[in-house]
Amino acid sequence: MQTAAERAELWVGGAVLAVAAGFLFWSMQGSAARGLGSGGYELRAAFPNVDGIDVGTDVRVAGVKVGRVSSVDLDPSSFLAEARLRIPASIQLPTDSAALIQSDGLLGGAYIELQPGGAADNLQPGDEIEDVQGAVSLLSLMMKFVDAQSSDSTERAP
Predict the structure, then answer these.
(1) pLDDT at residue 92 in the model
(2) Which residues form the Mce/MlaD domain (predicted)?
C-alpha cells in the first residue's frame, strides 16, 4: 500500500519527466526549423589554424546562426585543418564567399562567419571555400604588442 507521500513523489517524478520530454521536443523542432537538422549540404574550408573550432561549432552569416561544423580533420598533404560546414539548402552562397574564424568576445567561444561574395555562380555541395582566415591567437597578439612597446621604450632611452 502506497502512502500519500509516495504517491506525491511519483506524480512529481512523472511531471519532471514530461517537462524534460517537452524541452527535448521543443529543441529538436527549433533546430529543424532553422535548417540545422540532417538536411542541407556540406562545404569545405581549409584553415591554417582552427583554434576554438570543433564539431558542432556555429556557422553564421551576418551574425545569424545558419549551420554547424560537421567535422574538422588535418589534411596530411597540406597540413591545413579542413572543416566541413553543414549549411541549409535554402542558403546558396556565391563562389567567391569567404569563411573567417571569429571570436564571440574576449573570453567567448569561436564560430565560423561566412561572408557571401558577389559572384553569379553559387557553391555546390562538397565545394571548397577558397577565401579563408584562420583563428587569431590573442596571446600572440598581446606578445607582439608587449614586444613592440618594449622596443619603443629602449629606442627612446638616452
Answers:
(1) 93
(2) 40-117
54: cell is: 570543433
Do 68 and 131 lie in one domain? The reply is yes
Please report whether residue 126 resides in a domain: yes
For the chain (158 residues), the mean pLDDT of every run of 10, in chain order, is: 79 86 72 56 93 91 93 93 94 94 79 93 93 76 79 59
- Residue 33, pLDDT score: 45
* 48 and 119 share one domain: yes
Provide the residue range defining the domain that includes 28: 1-33
> Is there a single domain that holds both residue 76 and residue 100?
yes
| Backbone Cα Rg of the chain | 23
Distance CA 121, CA 89 (A): 15
Q: Locate 114 and state its grid cell.
A: 561566412
For residues 29 and 66, state if they share a domain: no
C-alpha 62/C-alpha 100 separation (Å) is 12
For position 58, what pLDDT does the model report?
93
Q: How many domains does the chain have?
A: 2
What is the rounded CA–CA span in Å between residue 103 and residue 53? Answer: 10
